[in-house]
Amino acid sequence: MNDETIHDDVRAYYRDAARTRGTAPGCDDRFGASQYDSDTIADGTSTAANLSMGCGNPFAMADLRPGEVVLDLGSGGGLDVILSAKRVAPNGKAYGVDFLEEMLGIARANAAEAGVSNVEFLHGMIEDLPLPDASVDVVISNCVINLAPDKTPVMTEIARVLRPGGRVAISDIVADDGVAPSMSGAEWADCGAGALQKGAYLELMTSVGLVEPSIEYTHETSPGLNGAIVRATRG
Ligand SMILES: C[S@@+](CC[C@H](N)C(=O)[O-])C[C@H]1O[C@@H](n2cnc3c(N)ncnc32)[C@H](O)[C@@H]1O
Prior knowledge:
- This protein has helices spanning 3-20, 38-43, 46-51, 58-61, 79-88, 101-114, 151-161, 185-190, 198-207; strands at 69-73, 93-98, 119-123, 136-142, 162-175, 196-197, 210-222, 225-234.
- By secondary structure, it is an alpha/beta fold.
- Strands 1, 2, 3, 4, 5, 6, 7 and 8 form an eight-stranded mixed β-sheet that branches.
- S-adenosylmethionine binds at residues 10, 14, 51-54, 72, 74-77, 79-80, 97-100, 103, 125-127, 142-144, 147-148.
């Protein structure tokens, strides 16, 4: 499969999810479901929470502080952006980037419902971020990087938009070293087939200028595939 076919499959999958509000067909146990506790969900909006299709809780790992600028890669229904915006208020800001106008529309409506105004949802690719160099304090993402056919431009863009000392706090699906997940189209969008192996993931982060990279497994999603917390700092 070429990269454009994968992007088209992922778009089709999430367009369906946007239309059905999160009930797109696919793997039985999608990445072990959301890792949010009820207090966190109560702080967002139920609509955003219902559409959350992540595999972790990057917002909780990110240790956000008032005044910071946060960027969520693949913002979907907007839950992680809304929660982050509340944490960095009043002077901070949370951006979400997504390549589907349908998801951006839902996220903007959810942010309005949650009463947060320090948010901006931008149309774009995580491989080509619509933000200037060194403009972000923290990059978060919830189960989206595994969807990218080529992770190198994604990591290069993360390093570009982060300020020196800026942080990465990402939930993702990571494959054990030596495990090559299968690559049919539907499985790429829904079952972690695009997951990078742990060693390659760590090497890639270092190669783009991220320092002290770490990957901590949180739960196994299928044999050889793991929900994981990915951290690093911009050198
Ligand atoms: C797992 S969901 C979003 C999770 C979201 N953070 C949440 O918890 O609600 C994935 C989202 O990433 C978007 N996406 C996937 N690949 C993308 C890419 N290459 N560039 C931009 N957005 C992408 C999809 O459209 C979808 O809305």
